[in-house]
Amino acid sequence: MADSGNSPIQRYLRQCGLFRGLNEASTTKLAEISISRRFSKGQTIFREGAPCPGIYVMAEGLVRVVKYAPSGKEHVLHLAYPGMTFAEVAAIGRFPCPATAEAMEDTHCVLILQDRLTQLLRADHPLCLQIMETFAWWVKHFVGLLEDIVLRDSTGRVARHLLHAGAAVGEEAFLLPMLKKDLASHLNLTSETLSRTIRRLADAGLIELLDQQRIRIMDRARLEDVAAGLPAGEFE
Predict the structure, then answer these.
(1) What kind of architecture, by CATH, is found in domain 152-228?
(2) pLDDT tens readout for residues 119-157
(3) What are the φ/ψ torsions at residue 215 (nearest 5 degrees)?
């Protein structure tokens, strides 16, 4: 389904962090090889090992990309909100989906079709270079996630996530954008460790727990110190 003009698909592509740096001509070309897809809450979008249909650009809703072990244990690799993407690496690399994607809410995506994208990138070198530049930012983002797991303790990981969650909405008080069990998995923590860490940050006056999912940052400077690696005992 081709798309042209100042269409909803083009608007969603412009709002996407991965494609925000593209010029108008490149955005139009991507829109022409994209379709809209809608998924109901709880619906599986794709499963690990399935052929990758393309790059999904989030328009509305929430998607989690999760890896399942043979034992049934799961690890949340990525949570995609409006303006974000998923399956981009598999689409560009033309390999099977490395994880499973599930709609956590009723979700609307723009799907940039993989076969058409491959053809376009081969024919349009300037577009290919622009996408490579934006991909470099995405690689940097995932290196930051790896740093969190390897170099930061549980308290630093939680503090950094809370700072980013607050910054994403531009407010000191915000709603955690996912269930705590998914957040714990995403940060490579147990649910018990996550709850205990949030409680410690609250007891120290760095945050306030407004309810089960809503948090207010009370002392941003000290929370930034903890996120940067300040030993936990120093903020108690």
Answers:
(1) Orthogonal Bundle (1.10)
(2) 998 888 888 887 787 777 767 767 766 666 666 788 988
(3) -135, 145
For residues 78 and 55, give the distance between their C-alpha atoms in angstroms, rounded to a whole number: 14
Q: How many other CB atoms sit within 10 Å of the CB of residue 173?
A: 14
Q: Give the strand pairing for 54-60 and 63-68.
A: unpaired
Q: Cα–Cα distances in Å, from 231 out to 20, 85, 207?
A: 38, 34, 17
For the stretch 190-231, pLDDT in tens is 889 999 999 999 999 999 998 888 899 999 999 999 988 766
pLDDT at 168 over 70: no
Q: In which order are the strands placed within the sheet that holds 54-60? A: 34-39, 107-113, 54-60, 85-86
Tokens of 199: 């409680």
Task: Provide the Cα torsion 68, 69, 70, 73; round to 10°.
Answer: -90
Annotate 140-204 with DSSP letters as a single string.
Answer: HHHHHHHHHHHHS-HHHHHHHHHHHHHHHHTSSEEE-SS-HHHHHHHTT--HHHHHHHHHHHHHT
Token readout for 89 is 């690496």
Element (H, E) at 215: strand 214-217
pLDDT of residue 22: 82
CA 204 from centroid of its chain's CA atoms:
29
**Fold of domain 8-126:** Jelly Rolls (2.60.120)
Q: Where are the domains of the chain?
A: 8-126, 152-228
- CA-to-CA distance for 107 and 40, rounded, in angstroms? 6
Q: What is the pLDDT of residue 4?
A: 47
Residue 113, classified by CB atoms within 10 Å of its CB into exposed (0-12), middle (13-18) or buried (19+), is middle
